[in-house]
Amino acid sequence: MQITQDAITLIRPDDWHLHLRDDSALAAVLPDSAKQFARAIVMPNLKPPVTTVAMAQAYKERIEAVMQAKNIEGFTPLMTLYLTNNTTAQEVEKVAHSGFVKAFKLYPAGATTNSDAGVTDLLANCSAALEAMQKHGVPLLVHGEVTDPSVDLFDREAVFIDRVMLPLRNAFPALKVVFEHITTKHGAHYVRDAEGPIGATITPQHLLYNRNVIFQGGIRPHYYCLPVLKREEHRVALVEAATSGNPRFFLGTDSAPHAKGAKEAACGCAGCYSALHAMELYATAFEKAGKLEALEGFASLHGPAFYGLPVNTSTITLERRAFEIPAELNYADNQYLVPLAAGEQLAWSFVG
Ligand SMILES: NC(=O)N[C@@H](CC(=O)O)C(=O)O
Ligand SMILES: [Zn+2]
Ligand SMILES: [Zn+2]
Fold this sequence. Notes:
By secondary structure, the chain is of the alpha/beta class. It has a single domain (about 15-315), classed as Metal-dependent hydrolases (TIM Barrel, Alpha-Beta Barrel). It has 11 helices and 14 strands. It has an 8-stranded parallel sheet with strand order 3-4-5-6-7-8-9-10. Helix 4 (about 120-135) links the parallel strand 6 and strand 7. Helix 1 crosses helix 2 and helix 6 (about 185-195) packs parallel to helix 8. The model has no long low-confidence stretch (mean pLDDT about 100). One zinc ion (ZN) binds next to loops.
């Protein structure tokens, strides 16, 4: 990694948590991710969810068709399957032998966007599948929030650790687990201190903002995602984890596009769009912490090490030049997409 006053050059990063959607939305957002990242773990929460290797193959081909149509090269989608109450050990075996499906994703039923098909009771319903994942070294990626309506929204990650994560990892201690998009000091400290194979992804919004930003001068739906932004002490713990050099923490944008109209609504969708300017956002967070030198490990080294994949061979450069985040972008079907921190200015610009 090379850091000067005016530029940072680092090994090309990967995005270990990304929503690419489908059809015209896929075509609208894919170029942004492919510009900055060499690979991305592609989330399976489509409608209907991607639950079989055959469906993942078809989805991958749709992604590749967009790449071909838009002359995108040098980007590899790493596919995932959506874990359901009905996932069989045979499907896990197929994943293990597929080469292109890299993980299963656990969405507790009702926890987030398109999670209706999610798991209702993990250990009761999915033990055979989990056993097979552990045996074959297939990672389980976890949206770590309980859905119990009696648990306060802001406590759902911390309660998930006690109610689901600990029993899960007790029962399957060799299972590789990624605690996705952690948002609390509880999540960060659990992953830092736990035994066995575990990692966590951290989004740019959870490094840059606390929950106040959602209510600054009025309600700001483009800062609403799940798990929701938390108090400042949690943001500080996440920055500390991301910049610590600990290989358990790696980059996952959770870039989750929703049309402007679907966010600016009486019941707005959860998700922030950050694929446009992901590395500029992360560089901003790392520089604020005085830890720019830790960016390459987080963005380009720790993820491949966890997944057992090679490190990328090319590099990217960010220049110290103001980047004005556009107010909106063109999206699918003549709709608009509002990027994270729209209208703000960042000190870094991606140059390729
Ligand atoms: N993060 C979000 O707020 N939304 C994601 C789903 C998810 O990752 O939970 C989405 O698909 O829109
Ligand atoms: Zn999620
Ligand atoms: Zn997500």
